[in-house]
Design a protein that fits this description.
Elements (H helix, E strand, L loop, with lengths): L1 H6 L16 H15 L4 E11 L4 E12 L2 E6 L2 E5 L3 E6 L4 E6 L20 E11 L2 E10 L6 E9 L5 E8 L4 E11 L19 E4 L2
Keywords: Lipoprotein, Signal
Protein name: Outer membrane lipoprotein carrier protein LolA
Organism: Hymenobacter telluris
Amino acid sequence: MKKILALLTLSVSLLSTASAQQDPKAGKILDQMSAKYQAMKAFKASFTQTLENDAAKVKENLSGDITVSGQKFRLKMSGQEVINDGKTVWAYAKSENEVTVSDNEPDEQEISPSQIYTLYKKGYKYTYVQEAKENGELVDVIELSPEDRTNQIFKVRMKVSKADKSVKSWQMFKKNGNRYTVKINKFTPNVPVDATTFNFDKTKYKGVRVIDLR
Protein backbone atom coordinates (compact mmCIF):
# COMPACT_ATOMS: atom_id res chain seq x y z
CA MET A 1 0.00 0.00 0.00
CA LYS A 2 2.88 2.39 0.77
CA LYS A 3 4.25 1.91 -2.73
CA ILE A 4 0.94 3.04 -4.19
CA LEU A 5 0.51 5.98 -1.86
CA ALA A 6 4.12 7.08 -2.28
CA LEU A 7 3.33 8.40 -5.73
CA LEU A 8 0.01 9.94 -4.97
CA THR A 9 0.40 11.32 -1.52
CA LEU A 10 1.11 14.99 -0.75
CA SER A 11 -0.60 17.13 1.84
CA VAL A 12 -0.68 20.85 1.27
CA SER A 13 -3.28 23.42 2.31
CA LEU A 14 -5.52 24.75 -0.43
CA LEU A 15 -5.78 28.05 1.38
CA SER A 16 -2.07 28.81 1.48
CA THR A 17 -0.55 31.45 -0.76
CA ALA A 18 2.65 31.13 -2.70
CA SER A 19 5.71 32.62 -1.04
CA ALA A 20 7.69 35.46 -2.57
CA GLN A 21 10.87 35.14 -4.66
CA GLN A 22 9.43 32.52 -6.98
CA ASP A 23 9.85 32.27 -10.74
CA PRO A 24 7.04 34.54 -12.05
CA LYS A 25 6.74 32.70 -15.40
CA ALA A 26 6.32 29.36 -13.65
CA GLY A 27 3.97 30.93 -11.11
CA LYS A 28 1.64 32.26 -13.79
CA ILE A 29 1.39 28.86 -15.49
CA LEU A 30 0.82 27.08 -12.17
CA ASP A 31 -1.88 29.57 -11.16
CA GLN A 32 -3.71 29.00 -14.47
CA MET A 33 -3.40 25.23 -14.08
CA SER A 34 -4.59 25.30 -10.48
CA ALA A 35 -7.58 27.51 -11.28
CA LYS A 36 -8.66 25.10 -14.02
CA TYR A 37 -8.86 22.12 -11.66
CA GLN A 38 -10.28 23.95 -8.66
CA ALA A 39 -13.15 25.23 -10.82
CA MET A 40 -14.31 21.64 -11.33
CA LYS A 41 -16.73 20.06 -8.87
CA ALA A 42 -15.08 16.70 -9.47
CA PHE A 43 -12.97 14.90 -12.04
CA LYS A 44 -11.80 11.41 -12.93
CA ALA A 45 -8.49 10.40 -14.46
CA SER A 46 -6.97 7.14 -15.61
CA PHE A 47 -3.20 7.02 -15.36
CA THR A 48 -0.06 4.94 -15.61
CA GLN A 49 2.50 5.06 -12.81
CA THR A 50 6.09 3.98 -13.35
CA LEU A 51 8.48 3.37 -10.46
CA GLU A 52 12.17 3.38 -11.40
CA ASN A 53 15.34 3.01 -9.36
CA ASP A 54 18.45 2.83 -11.54
CA ALA A 55 20.79 1.67 -8.76
CA ALA A 56 18.45 -1.16 -7.77
CA LYS A 57 17.61 -1.93 -11.42
CA VAL A 58 13.91 -1.57 -10.68
CA LYS A 59 11.23 -0.60 -13.17
CA GLU A 60 7.57 -1.29 -12.40
CA ASN A 61 4.44 -0.13 -14.20
CA LEU A 62 0.99 0.12 -12.65
CA SER A 63 -2.27 1.44 -14.04
CA GLY A 64 -5.19 2.89 -12.17
CA ASP A 65 -7.87 5.52 -11.98
CA ILE A 66 -8.83 8.17 -9.48
CA THR A 67 -11.90 10.29 -8.78
CA VAL A 68 -11.30 13.58 -6.97
CA SER A 69 -13.63 16.17 -5.47
CA GLY A 70 -11.99 18.86 -3.35
CA GLN A 71 -10.07 17.09 -0.59
CA LYS A 72 -11.81 13.77 -1.20
CA PHE A 73 -10.62 11.02 -3.51
CA ARG A 74 -11.17 7.41 -4.50
CA LEU A 75 -8.14 5.65 -5.95
CA LYS A 76 -8.10 2.21 -7.60
CA MET A 77 -4.83 0.60 -8.58
CA SER A 78 -3.29 -2.86 -8.75
CA GLY A 79 -6.01 -4.70 -6.83
CA GLN A 80 -6.12 -2.08 -4.11
CA GLU A 81 -8.47 0.75 -3.37
CA VAL A 82 -7.93 3.84 -1.24
CA ILE A 83 -10.89 6.03 -0.27
CA ASN A 84 -10.51 9.31 1.58
CA ASP A 85 -13.51 11.42 2.57
CA GLY A 86 -11.35 14.09 4.20
CA LYS A 87 -11.75 12.63 7.69
CA THR A 88 -11.42 8.86 7.29
CA VAL A 89 -9.22 6.72 5.04
CA TRP A 90 -10.18 3.20 3.93
CA ALA A 91 -7.40 1.10 2.38
CA TYR A 92 -8.78 -2.07 0.79
CA ALA A 93 -6.62 -4.97 -0.43
CA LYS A 94 -8.51 -7.31 -2.74
CA SER A 95 -6.06 -10.22 -2.39
CA GLU A 96 -6.65 -10.38 1.38
CA ASN A 97 -10.25 -9.10 1.21
CA GLU A 98 -9.23 -6.77 4.01
CA VAL A 99 -9.83 -3.07 4.66
CA THR A 100 -7.84 -0.93 7.09
CA VAL A 101 -9.66 2.10 8.48
CA SER A 102 -7.75 5.06 9.89
CA ASP A 103 -8.13 8.77 10.56
CA ASN A 104 -6.97 11.05 7.78
CA GLU A 105 -3.69 12.47 9.06
CA PRO A 106 -1.89 14.16 6.16
CA ASP A 107 1.89 13.89 6.13
CA GLU A 108 3.46 17.13 4.95
CA GLN A 109 6.24 15.18 3.22
CA GLU A 110 3.86 13.04 1.22
CA ILE A 111 1.90 13.68 -1.95
CA SER A 112 -1.93 13.53 -1.96
CA PRO A 113 -3.79 12.98 -5.24
CA SER A 114 -6.36 15.58 -4.32
CA GLN A 115 -3.69 18.28 -3.98
CA ILE A 116 -1.15 17.82 -6.77
CA TYR A 117 -2.70 20.90 -8.37
CA THR A 118 -1.97 23.11 -5.36
CA LEU A 119 1.35 21.59 -4.29
CA TYR A 120 3.30 24.67 -5.31
CA LYS A 121 1.36 27.01 -3.03
CA LYS A 122 3.13 26.16 0.21
CA GLY A 123 6.54 24.81 1.10
CA TYR A 124 7.88 24.51 -2.46
CA LYS A 125 9.99 26.71 -4.71
CA TYR A 126 9.25 26.53 -8.41
CA THR A 127 11.22 27.24 -11.57
CA TYR A 128 10.39 27.29 -15.26
CA VAL A 129 12.62 24.78 -17.06
CA GLN A 130 11.71 24.68 -20.74
CA GLU A 131 9.12 24.10 -23.42
CA ALA A 132 8.92 20.50 -24.62
CA LYS A 133 6.68 18.02 -26.40
CA GLU A 134 4.77 15.15 -24.83
CA ASN A 135 2.90 12.81 -27.17
CA GLY A 136 3.12 15.48 -29.85
CA GLU A 137 1.65 18.19 -27.59
CA LEU A 138 3.53 21.29 -26.49
CA VAL A 139 3.99 21.46 -22.72
CA ASP A 140 5.67 23.75 -20.21
CA VAL A 141 8.08 21.95 -17.90
CA ILE A 142 8.23 23.26 -14.33
CA GLU A 143 10.32 21.97 -11.44
CA LEU A 144 9.38 22.27 -7.78
CA SER A 145 11.72 21.71 -4.85
CA PRO A 146 10.74 21.55 -1.16
CA GLU A 147 11.93 24.30 1.17
CA ASP A 148 12.23 21.72 3.95
CA ARG A 149 15.56 19.97 3.36
CA THR A 150 14.53 16.99 5.49
CA ASN A 151 11.79 16.17 2.97
CA GLN A 152 12.51 12.81 1.32
CA ILE A 153 11.20 14.30 -1.94
CA PHE A 154 13.89 16.52 -3.43
CA LYS A 155 12.23 17.43 -6.73
CA VAL A 156 8.89 17.31 -8.55
CA ARG A 157 8.84 17.89 -12.30
CA MET A 158 5.48 18.81 -13.79
CA LYS A 159 4.44 19.05 -17.45
CA VAL A 160 1.53 21.39 -18.17
CA SER A 161 -0.22 21.63 -21.55
CA LYS A 162 0.36 24.98 -23.23
CA ALA A 163 -3.01 24.67 -24.97
CA ASP A 164 -5.40 24.15 -22.06
CA LYS A 165 -3.20 24.25 -18.90
CA SER A 166 -4.02 20.65 -17.97
CA VAL A 167 -1.40 18.49 -16.26
CA LYS A 168 -0.12 15.88 -18.71
CA SER A 169 2.35 14.15 -16.38
CA TRP A 170 4.55 14.63 -13.35
CA GLN A 171 7.61 13.01 -11.83
CA MET A 172 8.57 12.75 -8.18
CA PHE A 173 12.23 12.21 -7.25
CA LYS A 174 13.12 10.82 -3.81
CA LYS A 175 16.42 10.73 -1.96
CA ASN A 176 16.39 6.92 -1.83
CA GLY A 177 16.78 6.82 -5.61
CA ASN A 178 13.14 6.09 -6.40
CA ARG A 179 11.63 8.02 -9.29
CA TYR A 180 7.87 7.95 -9.79
CA THR A 181 6.33 9.04 -13.10
CA VAL A 182 2.59 9.54 -13.52
CA LYS A 183 1.11 9.98 -16.99
CA ILE A 184 -2.52 10.93 -17.44
CA ASN A 185 -4.09 8.68 -20.08
CA LYS A 186 -7.67 9.93 -19.95
CA PHE A 187 -9.24 12.85 -18.11
CA THR A 188 -12.97 13.46 -17.52
CA PRO A 189 -14.01 16.75 -15.88
CA ASN A 190 -17.10 17.30 -13.73
CA VAL A 191 -18.02 13.65 -13.27
CA PRO A 192 -21.10 13.04 -11.08
CA VAL A 193 -20.34 12.19 -7.45
CA ASP A 194 -22.52 11.74 -4.37
CA ALA A 195 -22.23 10.83 -0.69
CA THR A 196 -21.44 7.20 -1.52
CA THR A 197 -18.53 7.95 -3.87
CA PHE A 198 -16.06 8.63 -1.08
CA ASN A 199 -17.20 6.11 1.49
CA PHE A 200 -16.44 2.41 1.89
CA ASP A 201 -19.61 0.30 1.87
CA LYS A 202 -18.59 -3.05 3.37
CA THR A 203 -21.87 -4.63 2.26
CA LYS A 204 -20.46 -4.55 -1.29
CA TYR A 205 -17.40 -6.56 -0.23
CA LYS A 206 -18.68 -9.94 0.93
CA GLY A 207 -16.75 -11.34 3.92
CA VAL A 208 -14.37 -8.38 4.12
CA ARG A 209 -12.20 -8.24 7.23
CA VAL A 210 -12.23 -4.77 8.84
CA ILE A 211 -9.20 -3.52 10.78
CA ASP A 212 -10.16 -0.28 12.51
CA LEU A 213 -7.13 1.72 13.70
CA ARG A 214 -9.02 4.81 14.80
